[in-house]
Amino acid sequence: MARAEGVRDEGGAAAGINVLYMAQAGYQPDTFRAMAEAFQGETGIPVRINFTRYDDQYQKILTAAIAPIGAYDVITLDLIWVAEFARKGYVVPLDGRLSPEVQADLDRPVLRAMQFDGRTWAMPFLANFQLLFYNRRMLSEAGFERPPATLEELEHQMTVLKERGIVPYPWVDSWNQKEGLTCEFVWLTAAFGGELFDHFNQPVFNRPPGIAALETMVRWLEKGLVHPVSLSADETTAKDLFVDGQAAFTSNWTFQDALMKDPARSRVAGEGEVGLLPVASQVYDPQRFFTVSVSGFQGLAIPANSRRQAEAWAFIRYVSSPEVQAQHLEEVPVWRSVREDPETLRRDPDMALKSVAIASVFHRPQLVRYQEVSAVLQRYLHLALEGRMSPRQALDLAAEAVRPLL
């Protein structure tokens, strides 16, 4: 699938494409640039990459989508935008381009996240989800031989780490009032056996699991277990503090794994490990329910107003292919055949664990007005974390405020 053929314009020159890509979590800029250069080398099609922060990505896509002629030919499409962009006709469906064989090898949760109203709107590209990252040396110094299996064990281990002076703030996270906060709340609510919305896309995050999740976050803050910068930190900042040795635990996206293990970028190389996010003891079952995660899957999509759709698809097909993703194990491949390949397992001994995590993901809802809904939830979650209202009150008010948006 990686073989790409060039597309020429009427004058015989290779037609270039503009790509909008997120420079934050996911494949890092140097890696994505290398993919694009390899594609250009094979096809002769020039690729211009526009890197942007995740927080700016949505608005840039939206602005370009309503222009008569699009600024981009390929965009990275977050799963939370699929419903809105599909309903508004901002991207083109890709169903005719995906053979049954291709679809059968793609990881089902990732593929389903790119679908809406029975059609596929983006090619799965980034199997992004959260893992538990922990410092093995710190845990050993505190007398623990393994990472926690339950949230209660996690809180106990953090308490001991703090009391023994091993690390002032055992946990660091991205709890600023952004989308990352919603993601953290998703997995913590799931860890208590709940979800944010029901099958009818009605809010249920103010039921006991969601209340317990937010109460846990508040309690950790009150006990001094969470680094105070977490309330203003994004995922990159949380990663930086962890790899600097300033925390024993964090939950973060898969991009942190490679950076954590790189001695040139990390002070905890050789100490930092990846694990599965724990669940509450009341729902823990060692066979059926022992971990959860939250999905941050992204695909590559073609804007409807792109004038280079053939070239755009050639690029998407190339960089998302099994052959290319097998070369770049900095991120988890979207292809089951690549993840299960013995060579992949040899190069990344944690890949089997990551496959367990990806099978345990919980999703944010597919809502046309998701951005507005999430912004409301973020506001009330943060008010509770700031101690300005109780978790129950914050979630009740958030549920009331989002209902008119559904």
Automatic annotation (TrEMBL):
InterPro entries: Bact_solute-bd_prot1, SBP
Any single Pfam family the record assigns to this protein: SBP_bac_1
Official protein name in the record: ABC transporter substrate-binding protein
Organism: Limnochorda pilosa
